Please model this.
Amino acid sequence: MPKETNKTNTNDKLEELEQNREDSTGQFLTTNQGLRVNDDQNSLKAGPRGATLLEDFILREKITHFDHERIPERIVHARGAAAHGYFQVYESQNELTKAGFLQDPSLKTPVFVRFSTVAGSRGSSDLARDVRGFAVKFYTEEGNFDLVGNNMPVFFIQDAIKFPDLIHAVKPEPNNEIPQAASAHDTFWDFISLTPESMHMVMWTMSDRAIPRSYRMMEGFGVHTFRFVNADGKARFVKFHWKPLLGVHSVVWDEAQLISGRDPDFHRRDLWDAIEGALIRSGS
Ligand code: HEM
Model:
């Protein structure tokens, strides 16, 4: 085939690809309604140098989608890190329950675990002095099972109605949004001084349990009490506690402040490195 023809064919092909905005696998852009998009780089205008036209629904869709890309952060536990893994029961719990994922020690149940701090915003430091959330979703063959807990077995309040007041008190002061991810301020201690039931929890939050060395080195205490029913129909109330194989370890307060300054991602990096390391060691 003469070179010229070859060249023209390639150019034609390129032009066609360009015109139809396809990638090398033939996939092309569409609007959210599936309408093919051949050009999302130039908006419709009234004449070559005219105003941009609102009827350009591709432009409007692209901008609207962009404006809503930030998912609003959680009201609490906004800062966190999560990982997929699996759960295996050590020994059958059939005495207590007929739930399938707690019967057979050889069964691996996929789980998704999210660790979090409570008070700080999504961008705050991992090593703030705070309670740690410990939320686990089990994808069992009988449906999903959620086990939500914290790394402390007690809580600030005994009546849920006070939760908004607790969180408003610990969040940054409303007039200047200070401090971030810290309870060392007036509104918090004002609330605590008026809430005697919070004393036990304050002992925990002011202890080194509130500055764990790693998500992998802290206990977990489920918040809910479950009613377990076994195959004979016998029911019992159960609470879950997580015990770390690596033991419970914390940093000291001076270290926490230094590390937070140097590496606000300290805990999520530790989790990432631990999983990556395990994957490399297992050759997967
Ligand atoms: C009255 C008490 C409480 C209320 C009203 C409450 C409310 C909330 C809310 C609104 C969220 C954010 C959910 C989201 O946006 O995804 C949350 C998250 C969470 N809460 Fe609570 N909470 C309470 C007590 C507790 C207690 C006692 C614990 C544990 C012992 C706990 C553990 C958690 C955890 C671990 C998360 C993060 C879940 C995740 O990572 O997806 N909460 N809570």
User: Anything to note?
Assistant: Strands lie at 80-87, 109-117, 132-140, 143-150, 220-222, 226-229, 235-238, 241-242. The two ends are 48 Å apart (CA to CA). The chain is about 25% helix and 15% strand.
